[in-house]
Amino acid sequence: MGVKRGDILLVDFDPGSPGETAKVRPAILVTNDMANLYSPVLVVVPLTSNVSRVYLRIREHLGLG
Q: Which one of the record's GO molecular function terms can you name (predicted)?
């Protein structure tokens, strides 16, 4: 198939787990290129533009300097 890490793919997430949207949506491929060549499994992260239900507050002190 010739996919590379960082590619954006259209993935059919149906059937989905409860609480997940089961439909075709874009996803970013995060597995490394060697695994993409030899493994039948790809790891993707679904993308969305709907952030109205996102309640994550993430802060990280980098402590540089």
A: RNA endonuclease activity
